Amino acid sequence: MFKALLSLFSTDLAIDLGTANTLVFVRGKGVVSNEPSVVAVYRDPRGNQKILSVGEEAKNMVGRTPSNIVAIRPMKDGVIADFEVTEQMLRYFILKAHNRRSLVRPRVVVCVPSGITPVERRAVKESAESAGAREVYLIDEPMAAAIGAGLPITEASGNMVLDIGGGTTEVAIISLGGIVTSNSIREGGDKMDEAIIQYVKRKYNLFIGERTAEMVKIKLGNAYSTEDDEEMMEVKGRDLVSGIPKTLELTAGEVREALTDSLNSIVGVVKITLERTPPELASDIVDKGVVLTGGGALLKNIDVLLRNAINLPITIVDDPLTTVVMGSGKLLDDIDLLREVTVHY
Fold first, then answer.
1. Per-residue model confidence as pLDDT tens digits over 198-248
2. SS3 per residue for 46-69
3. Which H or E run includes 237?
4. Collapsing DSSP states into helix, strand and coil, what is residue 207?
5. What CA–CA distance (Å, rounded) separates 316 from 98?
6. Full-model pTM
7. What is the DSSP track for 243-265?
8. At 28, phi and psi to the nearest 5?
9. Which domains does the chain have, with CATH numbers?
10. What phi, psi does 277 have (nearest 5°)?
């Protein structure tokens, strides 16, 4: 009776708890929130802390705060790095999805990287429960991505998904509603940003911030050499020798050079997964190819790089950023499939 009453006040949610962005899908409404996974925390001299802002507003504070305010990214490499702050962030997103009504106990589907440990899975589940969830279902990100991409995951046929996120890159072969073989590396958009920061520091003695590096990646990032290599962008940072702010121009060719190691790691994990694929499923993948999702799929020419490396068709989904949350959202309408693909530990 009590659970039935609760369900009247709450709407089921699907949450893609990402390293870079957290997306929230509300059953019957679609994606209602897509904000950076950043929390701004105020710390007083006695060590007490108070949440100031979450999401876009908090991200604007990164690298610009006084010593008593810290902009924290509670998710690192796809897993919880700060349990308390993650719980507060989840509570914020759950309440926002329900228009700030506090009398809500929704059923929540949370996407997690396939490579995380049972302890890390439990931490995600407990965070969601503490934030107000009535029931929590954990779904592997590649499985949610495959459902979001519209792949026939319940058929006896191989489907290959490559999900390049902010903190992790996931590759999985899916058949008959389960993951046959999968691989996960802690390499993604964040590591690419860091690679650009280190490249500029090493080559030009210029220190640039995370947000600048991300803008460079979005504007000049290119996975494969083209005639656009001479395209340029002005970058501002601090000169490490003189300590004075300075401006320089970066080319797309230099950015591609900075991203080489990250891209090689992604190609490497795809090849390793293909080597472990059973031959019958491998023959399906020869015909169907690889479906590419996640923010990393937006990197220019990444499909060309992969196609040349593995000689298979590469398909980028229509909206790579929302594929995972849309897939987990679809599961809210199919409780039998949800129970079938839920991760048990």
1. 999 999 999 999 889 999 999 999 998 877 778 899 999 999 999 999 999
2. CCCEEEEEECHHHHCCCCCCCCCE
3. strand 232-239
4. strand
5. 32
6. 0.89
7. --EEEEEEEHHHHHHHHHHHHHH
8. 90, -10
9. 2-36+79-143+324-341 (3.30.420.40), 38-72 (no CATH), 151-187+262-320 (3.30.420.40), 189-259 (3.90.640.10)
10. -80, 130
